[in-house]
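User: Sequence for histidine kinase below. Tokens please.
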Amino acid sequence: MHQELTLDFELLFNRMPGSFLVLQPNAPKYTILAISDELLENTRKRREDVVGRGVFEVYPENPDAITATGPTSLRASLQNAVQNRVLDQMPVVRYDVVDAAGGFEVRYWSANSRPLEDNNGNLLYILHTTQDITNEIIAERRETDLRKIEKKYSLFLQAPLAVCIITGPENIIELSNDDMLRFYNKTKDIIGRPLFEAIPEAKDQGFAEMLDMVRKTGQSYSVSEYPTKLIAEGKEEIFYYNIVCQPYYENTYDSMPSGVFSVAHEVTELVLAKKRVEESEARLQAIIEATPECIKIVSPEGKLQYMNTCGLNMIEGDEQLLGKASVLDVIAPEHRIIWKKNHRSVCEGNSLSWEFDIIGLKGTRRRMETHAVPLAGAAGRSHLAVTRDITQRKESETALRESEEQFRIFANNIENLAWMADPEGSIFWYNERWFKYTGTTLDEMIGWGWEKVHHPDHVKSVVAFVQQAWQTGETWEMTFPLRGANGEYQWFLTRAYAVKDEEGKVLRWIGTNTNINSQKKAEASLEAKNMELTHINNDLDNFIYTASHDLKAPISNIEGLIGLLTEELAGLEFQKSDVRYILGLMESSVERFKRTITSLTDLVKLQQESATPATKVNLSELINEVLLDLEPQMKASAAKVEIEVDDCTLIYFSEKNLRSVVLNLVSNAVKYASKERELNIKVTCHDLPGYHVLSVIDNGLGISAINQEYLFTMFKRFHDHVEGTGIGLYMVKKMVEGSGGYITVSSEEGLGTEFRVFFRKNETKLN
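Assistant: Structure tokens for histidine kinase:
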């Protein structure tokens, strides 16, 4: 089964395209029962204000439109449709519509009225169909009026100019030909309308004042190249016109003009072309004046017709010379003959370039290079030239030639082999030393031919290295053997220097090869010597270690025997004092012997432990630990210690060795204290570029200037009243220097001593 559909006929009627009214046949009111959306829109009405009201109430007659026949014709049409039950076709009528301001707007309509009956012949409705044809009627009437005007002024309209007639104070467009319409990009529908209403963009461009002046004074007015803003393809552009405005008299007997007859001729292209020429000339003149070269025009007779400022400065003259002076006045005497010959050739139609000297009016001599061409003129061909001062270039070329000659002499007489390469590393020049040593020629060596004189065992690594080195653009060096003319290989140190421009771009490479064969042999010999010394040192260390180890047992035995002997002789009263003294000397000797053996052992350990890894050591904590170790000695000597090491929180050094350094320096200060005063010890540390400087200062016995020279020598002691082996400071110096530092001493005998230890910084490790 098909589902039954329900249609909304009222909606369909309202939305149908076209202007329709459904009227009730209740004359004379003719109530509006329905109205289409399109008619509502055309007559600016709302459906709720229309439906249910009489048609003549909704659309009243315009009382001011005497010629309007719309309401009368509509009433007659509806009456005919009701009475005769026929379709009534109305003639075209004017039926004005109320506008938004409450006035009336002229409208023209084409309409018909159709009676609608039911199946029994009863009249139910009248369907009124209408069409707004206002635009067509107005266009047709304008066309008719325009044809009349064109017929009257046909002679003007055919002129190849923009022609128009503007009448009255309202500036009504009475006539306008096609050129004038194109002038404003308008169509013929502007005819009959006020000028500034039809063409509003013309209002503020001076035309109103121009028209009023001609109409009021009766005098003609003309203006050339008048700028006018027009809309072209949606963009505002400026056009230029020559305009003539004459008074227009509608009748020959009129005393005052009724309007203005205007003729306009577009000269935009001419004006723009003239402006382009003027701008081009101005630019050319500016370029000529700004050009740092001499630009001149010389007449066939040699008169200076024109010369720019730069040229006048070159000849040390001014503009008063132009048209009067001869160019030959500033040409150097020895160059005048060839200059005159070339000048004649240029004036005959040839282009030439040559060099010559000038002597300025103030005596300055310059070398010039000129490029001259013929220039046609009223007096025949003249000489147009661009001349530049090449004095510095010539001087530079001369200097360069001399420099190159000096370089060649220098390069060919140095002991080194020398060469030059392009930015990519292709060698294009060698000095004579190269060819003499290698026995080759430039043809063999050019480019990468140098590979032929490299040792087969090294050439691949050399090529790989230099290929990468060329790309870096930085100076590089390398050692390798080169084959001589005798077939033997010798070692060379090669250095390559990049010659760069101001932007850092490599222009060329300059390289030297320095013979280091003797040095290589010396290095090999030195290496052998070092290995031999290393073996000797190792043997010596082993000997010392073995000797000190082997001597410990006998010394211990002697020490035991002395103890037994002391016990045996204890009862010999008559020898007691002498024996006791001798035994004391023996015991003292044994102790010194033991300390010496211990020091030798420590020295060997120092040699073996020289590679102890460095770490970040807290200096303040380490000093406090050392002072705790020395506390008995410190108390015994009543020493006062002052510590200021905040500037050196961390020292990069072997912790064990740093402890030995501090312990030795502080314990020495205690050992060599003066009995005449209280012992004061000051430990400080401060920064210097590249170093941490540890200072240990005391007010002890001090060291004489003579003894200071031997202070760090092994087994040197300058005071016998304290125990020691004379090896402590030697070991301190050895440890400090082994890590890249050094130690100094400043002392005055009887006043005190200052030791300064310079520890090499390692910034990376301490960060």
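The CA atoms of residues 6 and 429 lie 105 Å apart.
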